[in-house]
Write a structure and sequence with these properties.
841 residues; alpha+beta; Jelly Rolls; Immunoglobulin-like; TIM Barrel; six-stranded antiparallel sheet; six-stranded parallel sheet; 16 helices; 46 strands; 18% helix; globular
Length: 841
């Protein structure tokens, strides 16, 4: 196969929406208004570059380009085809990876057809319409929302979530197979996408093509068995052709085994399976549980002395199972992902597209975001169902970093029109393409039908809101499980999230979204009380969260030329619509009167409160032995906002990032009061047994009173259980702390029992010391120490805002010392670094 890229040197222009596909000639004759563009391209990208619109994610400029939805957008591309390529090819395929959303395509004036999904490629043999020399490809696109009337969505109108928030939402989204969030969500603006969102290529085939390679693995003793199935397309309409297949198994660049097969290829599709073996196989494990060993398959097909090679396929040898066994023989059931026979405790968060203009997210952005997730001790990412199926690089990075992927199909918070035959057909094509594309990834852990729709069938869309039928249920209950079974039977399928048991959001089985009991509770006191999470009893918590702001540098960035102002329309627009005064109420409960704080103080204490709420809740969930995972909402952002994330849109860590990182530490102690005693849960997510000598007891915040003992604690591999128990004692609660201090602090951090809010604790200002330990390039290792209990100890980098410490906003017990590494500091910058207590505001 010869591949010719068509990504560069496009031109794009806007026409009135009524200018349809039948007016191609008139559009091309008008030479005015064409803007240069390369792919991937959302139409707003050249508009921003040329200064026609302001960056929509700054200030309130998201409202300035709503007119984009009221236009048709025409892309044109001139390209040359070599005469020899055309003469030698049996098939010349035009492939456009993602057209968002309603597209008409033309080649040299000939209409190729209409495409109506951003979730699978347009692909067609266009040899008959290509010319040797100059050719022109034209694509007419719209956002799609203009195609569907009120009558189209009338039967489902009352089921469509995220409507009416500050101009956000569109009932017509349910008719469109494109990212749903672009019409606005509680955490993002309305910026309806339109464009060519992936690569465009021309692929010349002469005799046959390798369409796909599927790799299935299993473990037999110490060996890995690898089954490779090659899908080959032979283009002769009625004759067979002789073919030879050469398949190599590789560990890096080392060839492990070569498999050879010779076969006559029938006309059309052929499936050739070869079996290989990897002796002394190294298993692939999620992050923290073991190594991420990846092997590769390289496939070559020789037909009549012509050789075609498929790109290498990376794979890991691992087994995966969804354990739903009864708990202790009772009515409740587990919901645990098992990897290589070991139950995973899922640690992570929900993922949304990292930009409201998703076409401009590059590989570097994915590397940064997923790298930060791995450093925060994640082992699981849930790709939420209102976004997109992420590009190949996302899953390749997850393979390498050991981040399992819970992959939703793209349906969220609405009933969908699956009564329509065309809609069911589009959904099946989408699911077939995506399951085939992603099936070989070691990181792929679970396919999931929808986000919250089964829950809504049970609780939300009832009475007057009840749809005429359970719209969309056929997609999740029939199409999806059949497609998953056909294309990747080794990956578990789950109908929705949440789902399981008699009620989809119950606590007895399946996964749970824990919203209305805490953060979205009508009662403010329950929203801001971390102890409420101790009452939780779900088997896997796949959504819940708490809102907090980004840092001042990011706020200044999205305010643009305007001075940040908490009373302004910009602040209001860039604050989550579910905030509902929760952030200031949380500050008031735990730290200070928010009305008396300047902006920096407000951001500081709001960030600490978000960190407190997330760390406490994640530890409350983790200590419950019957619960198998916690995924908070949400990890990242699509624009700058006071919102759910712990890494903001500009890919800066928020204060809460460090609290989550500590809550997810591979070895962690969690303290709770139980019947007048302090119960210590020990968590060990690693494959090695951990033996620790710990100091435990009570000491006053000023360090003058101490009542402590020592013990040896043994934590078995992959375990969560009670490790220690000691009397709470009749000590002064607001003046001191019950704690566990590992004497080998490089293995685990100290932990302490929360008995009061920080406002109620009688804390004194610590004398913090910062001492250099070592330097290596731009990495600086320091020791931080304190005389008394120090809360939220953090670094002040002066003007060096982008320095990244390994830990930050941490607590120190009296006399404790802590080693921290700081990346991004040159020798001159180090002189400006200081360390501060969280009380210094």
């Amino acid at each position: 196969m010869k591949r010719q890229s068509l990504n560069e040197a496009w031109r794009v222009k806007a026409c009135e929406l009524h200018v349809g596909a039948d007016e191609l000639e008139r559009v091309l004759l008008d030479n005015d208004g064409w803007l240069a563009a390369d792919l991937p391209c959302d139409v707003r990208m050249p508009l921003i570059r040329e200064g026609i619109i302001e960056e929509p994610l700054t200030a309130n400029h998201c409202f300035d380009s709503v007119w984009v939805e009221r236009k048709s957008w025409w892309f044109r591309k001139s390209f040359r085809v070599d005469e020899a390529d055309l003469a030698n090819a049996c098939v010349a395929e035009l492939v456009l990876e993602s057209l968002d959303c309603e597209a008409d395509l033309f080649l040299n004036g000939r209409r190729l057809g209409h495409h109506r999904s951003a979730f699978y490629p347009f692909s067609r043999d266009v040899k008959a319409w290509l010319r040797a020399g100059d050719n022109e490809l034209v694509v007419r696109l719209t956002t799609g929302s203009e195609l569907h009337s009120e009558a189209d969505v009338a039967k489902l109108k009352n089921t469509i979530g995220m409507e009416g928030f500050n101009g956000r939402g569109d009932a017509g989204r349910i008719m469109l197979r494109k990212p749903q969030y672009v019409f606005g969500w509680d955490w993002g603006p309305r910026l309806a996408s339109c464009g060519i969102m992936g690569d465009a290529t021309l692929r010349f085939h002469r005799l046959a093509a390798i369409r796909s390679v599927a790799v299935d693995t299993r473990v037999e003793g110490s060996d890995g068995c690898v089954a490779v199935t090659v899908e080959a397309d032979q283009f002769h309409s009625y004759a067979t052709r002789e073919a030879r297949f050469e398949i190599g198994l590789y560990d890096g660049e080392t060839l492990i085994e070569t498999m050879i097969a010779e076969a006559p290829l029938a006309s059309g599709l052929n499936y050739i399976r070869l079996d290989g073996r990897i002796t002394q196989v190294k298993l692939w494990w999620p992050s923290g549980m073991g190594e991420q060993q990846l092997y590769a398959v390289r496939v070559a097909m020789i037909v009549e002395d012509e050789r075609a090679e498929h790109p290498p396929v990376a794979f890991g040898v691992r087994t995966i199972r969804l354990n739903q066994e009864r708990i202790d023989g009772g009515a409740e059931r587990r919901f645990a992902i098992e990897i290589n026979g070991v139950a995973l405790y899922g640690k992570g968060a929900n993922w949304i597209p990292p930009d409201s203009i998703y076409a401009r997210v590059d590989v570097a952005a994915y590397e940064k975001l997923l790298g930060e997730a791995a450093q925060a001790n994640f082992n699981l990412i849930r790709v939420w169902g209102g976004g997109r199926y992420e590009p190949d690089c996302f899953y390749e990075l997850c393979d390498r970093m050991g981040l399992l992927v819970w992959q939703n199909f793209m349906f969220a918070c609405a009933a969908y029109p699956d009564r329509l035959a065309w809609f069911r057909s589009e959904v099946e094509r989408e699911m077939d393409y995506q399951t085939r594309r992603l099936r070989n990834h070691a990181s792929l852990a679970l396919w999931c039908g929808s986000n919250e729709n089964h829950w809504a069938f049970d609780e939300w869309w009832t009475g007057e809101k009840q749809a005429e039928y359970f719209g969309g249920a056929y997609c999740y209950n029939y199409i999806a499980p059949a497609v998953v079974r056909r294309n990747c039977p080794h990956i578990p399928y789950w109908n929705s999230s949440p789902y399981g048991g008699a009620h989809p959001n119950g606590s007895e089985a399946g996964d749970r979204h824990h919203w209305f009991e805490c953060t979205m509770n009508e009662e403010m006191g329950k929203r801001i009380a971390p102890e409420e999470y101790d009452q939780l009893s779900g088997k896997f918590i796949s959504e819940y969260g708490y809102i907090g702001p980004p840092g001042l540098a990011s706020i200044r960035q999205y305010f643009g030329p305007h001075e940040p102002d908490r009373t302004s329309a910009i602040w209001d627009n860039h604050t989550n619509v579910h905030e509902k005064k929760t952030v200031p109420a949380g500050i008031a409960k735990h730290y200070a009167d928010p009305k008396k704080l300047d902006l920096e103080g407000y951001l500081h204490y709001a960030g600490l409160t978000q960190g407190l709420m997330l760390q406490y809740s994640l530890e409350a969930i983790r200590r419950k032995e019957d619960c198998s995972g916690s995924l908070f909402w949400m990890y990242n952002d699509c624009w700058g906002e006071v919102g759910w994330s712990i890494v903001d849109y500009y890919r800066r860590r928020k204060i809460a990032y460090y609290f989550v990182k500590r809550a997810f530490a591979p070895v962690r102690f969690i303290l709770r009061e139980a019947g007048g005693e302090v119960e210590v849960t020990g968590c060990n997510d690693t494959a090695a047994e951990v033996e620790l000598r710990v100091e435990y007891g009570y000491q006053s915040f000023d360090g003058t009173v101490k009542n402590a003992d020592t013990a040896v604690v043994v934590l078995k591999p992959f375990s969560r259980c009670e490790a220690l128990r000691f009397p709470k004692g009749a000590f002064d609660h607001p003046a001191g702390v019950r704690y566990v201090l590992p004497l080998s602090t490089e293995i685990a951090d100290p932990a302490w029992l929360r008995t009061n809010t920080y406002r109620e604790m009688r804390l004194t200002m610590p004398k913090l010391k910062l001492a250099p330990v070592s330097t290596e390039g731009k990495q600086w290792t320091v020791e931080v120490s304190t005389d008394v209990f120090a809360h939220a100890v953090h670094f002040d980098f002066g003007l060096v805002n982008e320095a990244v410490p390994s830990d930050n906003y941490f607590d120190l017990l009296p006399g404790q010392r802590k080693i921290v590494t700081i990346d991004g500091l040159d020798p001159l910058s180090r002189a400006h670094v200081s360390v501060r207590s969280g009380l210094e505001r």
